[in-house]
Write a structure and sequence with these properties.
Layout (H helix, E strand, L loop, with lengths): L15 E4 L2 E4 L7 E4 L2 H6 L1 H13 L4 E5 L2 E2 L8 E2 L2 H13 L3 E6 L10 H17 L8 E4 L14 H25 L4 E7 L14 E4 L2 E4 H8 L2 E5 L11 H4 L1 H7 L7 E7 L15 H15 L5 E7 L1 H4 L7
Parallel strand pairs: 3-4, 3-14, 4-7, 7-8, 8-9, 9-12, 12-13, 13-14
Antiparallel strand pairs: 1-2, 5-6, 10-11
Helix pairs in contact: 2-3, 4-5, 5-6
Length: 324
C-alpha cells in the first residue's frame, strides 16, 4: 500500500498487430517509474534533490511519482502546491535530465463521492502551478493513489458494497481525467490499482463488477479506458509461478494491449520493508531483484500495454544491498 496518452505514446507506431482477433498497437518506448516520498527533505536540500535525479538516471528511471502536498492558506482558499519554489527547483533539475515528475497525491477517503471535489481541487492547483512555472519547471503528470480497499468500511463490506465503493473510485478517476485534460492538456494522469481488481469468477465474469455510464466491467478496465496509465501494485518477491508478478497482472496487461484502450500499465515491484515478506524484495540484493525484473521484461516487453516496471520506493531502492 502507498500513500495524454499523447505523451505516453510518443513514438507509438500507428501500425497495428493482429493477435488472437484483437488489434494491438506496436509497443511504445519503454519507461521505468519510481515512487518517492521524502518530499520535504528533497525540497529542502539541493544535494538531496540532485541525488534523487542522479540515482534515477543511474537506474534508467524515466518517471518519478513524487509525493506532493497540496495545502490551503485559509479555510476557503484554493489548494496550492506546498513550497512551490523548492518544487520548481527540483523539477528543473529533473527536466534537465529528461526525467518526468508526476505529483503523487491521494487518500482512501477520496474514493467517496463526498470528497471528489477535493481531488478536483488538486487538479486546479497543479494547473495553476504549471501555468506559473517555466516550461522546464512543470509537473509532467498527476498520479493518484486513492486505494478504496484501504477504507475502514472495506473490511466488513459485502461484495455489493465493495462494488459500490469501486464505482465511486472509477467515477473520481474518470472525472479527474476529464478535468485534467481540459485544464492542463498534455499532462499525464496515472492512478494506482491493486492487481486483483480484475479478478474473475469461474464463469469469467468479474468478482467486482462496476457499472459506469451504462457499461459493466471491472474497475481496472474502466480505468484503463480513461487514464494514461495505471500503476499495478503487483507486489510479489518473484516474477514467475502461479502467484508471481507475471501471472497476477496478465488480465490487466491483456486488456491494456488493445489499440482501443487509452492507458498502459506499469508493473509494480516492491523493495520496501512494508507488508508481508512474500510481497517484497527487501533484504535481497538489487541484482537479485533485477534478475526477476528481466523475467517480467521478457514476458511483457514487446506488449503494447506494458509501460515498464515501477519501483516502490526510492527511499528503499537506494538502500538495497549490492552483491559482492
Amino acid at each position: 500500500m502507498h500513500t495524454r496518452r499523447q505523451i505516453l505514446s510518443t513514438g507509438l507506431s500507428s501500425v497495428g498487430l493482429a493477435t488472437a482477433g484483437r488489434v494491438l498497437a506496436a509497443p511504445a518506448p519503454r519507461m521505468r517509474a519510481m515512487w518517492a516520498y521524502e518530499t520535504v527533505k528533497l525540497l529542502g536540500s539541493t544535494q538531496a534533490s540532485d541525488e534523487l535525479v542522479k540515482f534515477s538516471k543511474s537506474r534508467g528511471i524515466t518517471d518519478v511519482f513524487l509525493q506532493a502536498r497540496f495545502v490551503r492558506k485559509a479555510k476557503n482558499a484554493p489548494f496550492e502546491v506546498e513550497n512551490p519554489a523548492g518544487m520548481q527547483a527540483l523539477l528543473r533539475t529533473a527536466t534537465a535530465e529528461s526525467i518526468r515528475v508526476h505529483a503523487l497525491t491521494g487518500d482512501p477517503m477520496h474514493a467517496l463521492r463526498a470528497n471528489h471535489a477535493r481531488v478536483h481541487a488538486r487538479v486546479e492547483a497543479l494547473a495553476a502551478f504549471n501555468e506559473e512555472a517555466g516550461p522546464d519547471a512543470r509537473f509532467a503528470g498527476l498520479h493518484l493513489d486513492i486505494e478504496p480497499h484501504a477504507l475502514p468500511a472495506w473490511k466488513t463490506a459485502s461484495d455489493a458494497e465493495k462494488c459500490a465503493l469501486l464505482t465511486q473510485f472509477v467515477e473520481v478517476n474518470v472525472s479527474t481525467a476529464e478535468l485534467l485534460h481540459k485544464r492542463a492538456p498534455g499532462v499525464i494522469l496515472g492512478t494506482d490499482i491493486v492487481f486483483w481488481l480484475d479478478k474473475v469468477k469461474e464463469d469469467g465474469t468479474p468478482v467486482y463488477p462496476v457499472t459506469f455510464r451504462g457499461v459493466t466491467k471491472d474497475a481496472a478496465k474502466h480505468l484503463l479506458d480513461a487514464v494514461d496509465h495505471v500503476g499495478i501494485m503487483s507486489y510479489r518477491g518473484r516474477a514467475e509461478g502461479p502467484n508471481g508478478i507475471i501471472a497476477i497482472v496478465k488480465r490487466t496487461l491483456a486488456y491494456a494491449d488493445a489499440d482501443t484502450v487509452r492507458g498502459r500499465a506499469f508493473i509494480g515491484v516492491k523493495m520496501a520493508d512494508i507488508g508481508p515478506q512474500m510481497e517484497t524484495f527487501f533484504g535481497r540484493t538489487e541484482q537479485e531483484m533485477d534478475a526477476e525484473v528481466r523475467k517480467i521484461e521478457a514476458a511483457y516487453g514487446t506488449r503494447r500495454g506494458y509501460a515498464g516496471p515501477a519501483y516502490f520506493m526510492y527511499e528503499a531502492y537506494r538502500a538495497m544491498p549490492q552483491r559482492e
